[in-house]
Amino acid sequence: MFHENRAKKLSVAERGSVVSLGLAGHSINQISRQLGCSRATVVLWKNRFSETEDVKRKEGSGRPKKTTAREDQRQMERGSIANTFVYDTSGRKTVPVWACFSSVAGAGPFLKINGRFVKEKYIEILEEELLPWVRQHYGEQQVHFVQDKSPIHTARIITQWFREHPQIELLPWPSKGADMNPIENVWSNIVKDFECRHARTADDVFNHARDNWIRHNERPNYWQILSNSMSKRLNLVVEAHGFWTKY
């Protein structure tokens, strides 16, 4: 049974995770369980970000700050969900994106999510971006599709959409298996390569991330190798009896 830690104080990275998970559609209870903090703490930082677009503590509260702005930014990057890129000097910019790839077609659509990422918006992406892209590169051939079990992905209208489009077969995925998705490797590469000095606006952040995404096409067999790693990833999970692996 999960017991929330009411006394836990969140690090900068964890506060960033509260915001990022909220933007991705996770509920307060889900965020609380994942971070091991109270629901009140989740609400506090969600509200703080809504009011100030920042996750800093109010001046004068808590212990004196011992980290630099650059160190805080690195923590925010590590604490963010996979599809959020963070920029922080005088302020904080978060840019949620959706993207996909395949071993055959390589880098697929890379889309900026404007506003909240809700199930209706995801349906638009599936209809207007994913389905045409699959048909362009695979014709009528059936393909397998991987996504985690965020509330948006498991909404009834989303699962119904996949049932109505059997060409895109949705693979079963464990509730806590997000890190097993090969796309996480790509997000990690993009974050590591991120150059904040070139980003002054949210659009700059998005453009840099998108250009980096496309540049992965220049690496020979990159997407194929990444896709082919799936069997190895899953075998390691079985060998570890469901516990952590190197991925």
From TrEMBL:
Any GO MF annotation of the entry: nucleic acid binding
UniProt superkingdom: Eukaryota
Pfam families hit by this protein: DDE_3, HTH_29
InterPro entries xref list: Homeodomain-like_sf (IPR009057), RNaseH_sf (IPR036397), Tc1-like_DDE_dom (IPR038717), Transposase_5 (IPR052338)
GO annotation, cellular component aspect: nucleus
Primary site of residence: nucleus
Region (Disordered): 54-75
TM segment ranges: none
Localization per record: Nucleus
Domain Tc1-like transposase DDE: 99-203
Name of the protein: Tc1-like transposase DDE domain-containing protein
Species this chain originates from: Daphnia sinensis
